[in-house]
Design goal:
The chain is about 30% helix and about 25% strand. It is an alpha+beta fold. It is globular and about 50 Å long. The chain starts with a strand and ends in a 6-residue tail after the last strand.
Length: about 210
């Protein structure tokens, strides 16, 4: 089982939803200075809660792994991951490990990041592409989704593994047979790393998630 959804939270009314958040999420929301970041933090939790409730999962207890990846300790075989960028939040829940990343394709980004931090073949493919920005963000979200899948995050070096984008997306030396799924949402890229291929993702409107 895997479910993936996203939502534009730019119009989220923080006053209305604040009391719907658990205390630990309120603390995190309060730690941000700008309303945009507060909305992303609150919205990501509300979207996660929506997906969990649809599966009959209520009152989850969150704990954290070695590198800070959150997991639910009071339910077996329920995994989740969240991501956000600019105006959008995204979430995946599954009965096996999962990683998700969403990024707005920012045209001002320095593509030399790929030269210095990506696997050599990935950088070369970006250089050869007719749309280098588009190709860069494909690799970026796929690689970050995998690092989040492993639970290591940026403790895992970007150039320590190779993503291969052909007719299908694969990981070189992939004994776990991890499936990669890639979606475009206007000027965003979204990627999922999972045991399962993802065929579709669901869009929620802001009023759907609380």
């Amino acid at each position: 089982m895997i479910k993936v959804a996203y939502c534009d939270v730019s119009s989220l009314d923080l006053v209305n939803v604040y009391n719907l958040l658990p205390e630990n999420r309120k603390i995190k929301v309060d730690s941000f200075r700008f309303d945009k970041d507060k909305k992303l933090s609150a919205g990501a939790y509300l979207l996660l809660d929506k997906l969990l409730c649809e599966e009959g999962i209520t009152n989850p207890v969150f704990e954290y792994g070695k590198y800070g990846k959150a997991y639910i300790s009071n339910y077996e075989n329920i995994y989740f991951n969240m991501s956000h960028s600019n105006k959008l939040v995204a979430c995946a829940i599954s009965d096996s490990e999962v990683g998700i990343d969403i990024e707005m394709c920012d045209p001002t980004i320095d593509l030399n990041i790929a030269k210095h931090y990506f696997y050599n073949s990935e950088y070369e493919n970006i250089q050869k592409s007719k749309n280098q920005l588009n190709e860069f963000f494909k690799y970026w979200v796929l690689k970050e989704s995998y690092m989040k899948y492993t639970g290591e995050g940026f403790n895992k070096k970007l150039d320590s593994f190779e993503i291969i984008i052909n007719n299908e997306i694969t990981l070189k030396n992939n004994p776990e047979n991890i499936k990669f799924s890639l979606f475009e949402i206007k000027n965003y890229k979204l990627a999922i790393s999972s045991k399962y291929p993802v065929k579709k993702i669901k869009k929620y409107e802001i009023n759907d998630i609380f």
